[in-house]
Amino acid sequence: MDSILVENELAKGVNLSIINLIDELIRHAFFLHASDIHLDPLENKIRIRFRIDGILNDICIFQKEIYPEIISRIKILSGLRIDEHYSAQDGRFRILISEYESIDIRTSIIPTYHGENVVLRLLFDKAESFTLETLGFSYNNNLKITEAIKKTTGMILVTGPTGSGKTTTLYTIIKMLNKNDISIVTIEDPIEYAIEKVKQIQVNFKNGLSFANGLRSILRQDPNIIMVGEIRDIETASISVNTALTGHLVLSTLHTNDSATTLPRLLDMKVEPYLVSSTVNIIIGQRLVRKICDNCKVEKKFKKEEYNQFELIFSRKFDMVKLYKGLGCKFCNNTGYRGRIVIAEVLTIDENIRVAILQKASAGEIKKIAIANGMITMFEDGYNKVIQGFTTIDEVLRVVYE
Predict the structure, then answer these.
(1) Residue 89 dihedral angles phi and psi, to the nearest 5°
(2) For residue 101, how many other CB atoms are within 10 A of its CB?
(3) How many C-beta atoms lie closer than 10 Å to residue 154's C-beta?
(4) 86: burial class by Cβ within 10 Å (0-12, 13-18, 19+)?
């Protein structure tokens, strides 16, 4: 169904059956490439928002009177208690989008002052055919990552805040490594994409299956490569590092601001400096920036004072450089942006970095060494994406300094 027709149906709200209303809401989010649906109860109405390209957008308003029925329908689909209104609940369900395509929906419900707040995360069955290049990694960063994944032992870490594309990068690397003579096992929360020939395990804290416990079990499955969805605690960090030390390639993510901060963070998690220096092969720090919409992309005219301001920010001259923006059109929902790409920094652990780790150097000191050894920072990579016409200065500043 065309997304505009869906939007018209949603605007009617109460004229749809509750079953159809939920179905159309999810289909509309799917057509707009949204990652999340937010149902926010306010005093006299329900606000519906979609997260599209990392930004929350207002979509429509529902009458408060129909919200109890909406909540009940979502709880039934998700296998949750419909009589429980004062505690958080999490669930999951699958919905058919078309004759040939279905998606999983992860449900999170929490009680708030004006009622139960719902967030639905859209999880697609199959990973898109991403490559490091299509994700946005530069030629040099692509080479560094490709070289690092040739090693059969050690750790590859991807860092960044929630929603920065870390898992997608890991999946892309897993697909590059996925061969018949290799055994790959993952432990994830949640499993976002199904990958053929890869054994994927879903974390289940209620049944005692945590990242740490799952990782211990995986080691008895004779794997070559292990992907740990996230290193969240000291126990998982310790097991992951020791697994990498004993002949496995371990891929995982950490929540840190940049690649250099990851190394002191591992030390904070009680991992010995000599273990960090001998196991970590490469650290990828990344963010996602919105791409300028190709359909409404035009050259942006700047005033002289704007150029001067940008030159101060980037410490670069913008002479003879064309910069672009999106005017806004129906294809990009009038935002001027459509889709996202990675801006990244790739820190290769060389001998100089190893010495700094053993000396428990600060993140700032490690970053200086990495830059001296040729690392391009995220900010610099963002600058390159701006002058290549992929994104805007405002977008780079938004994600790097958010």
Answers:
(1) -135, 145
(2) 11
(3) 20
(4) exposed
Per-position pLDDT tens, the chain of length 402 = 344 444 455 554 445 689 999 999 999 999 888 999 999 999 999 999 999 999 999 999 999 999 999 999 999 999 999 999 999 999 999 998 877 788 889 999 999 999 999 999 998 765 567 899 999 999 999 999 999 999 999 999 999 998 899 999 999 999 999 999 999 999 998 888 888 899 999 988 878 899 999 999 999 999 999 999 999 999 999 999 999 998 999 999 999 989 999 999 999 999 999 999 999 999 999 999 999 999 999 998 777 777 777 777 777 776 667 889 999 998 888 899 999 999 999 999 999 999 999 999 999 999 999 999 999 999 999 989 998 999 998 999 999 876
The pair phi, psi for residue 228, each rounded to 5°, is -105, 120
Question: Phi and psi for 91 in degrees, rounded to 5?
Answer: -155, -170
Tokens of 104: 């999983």
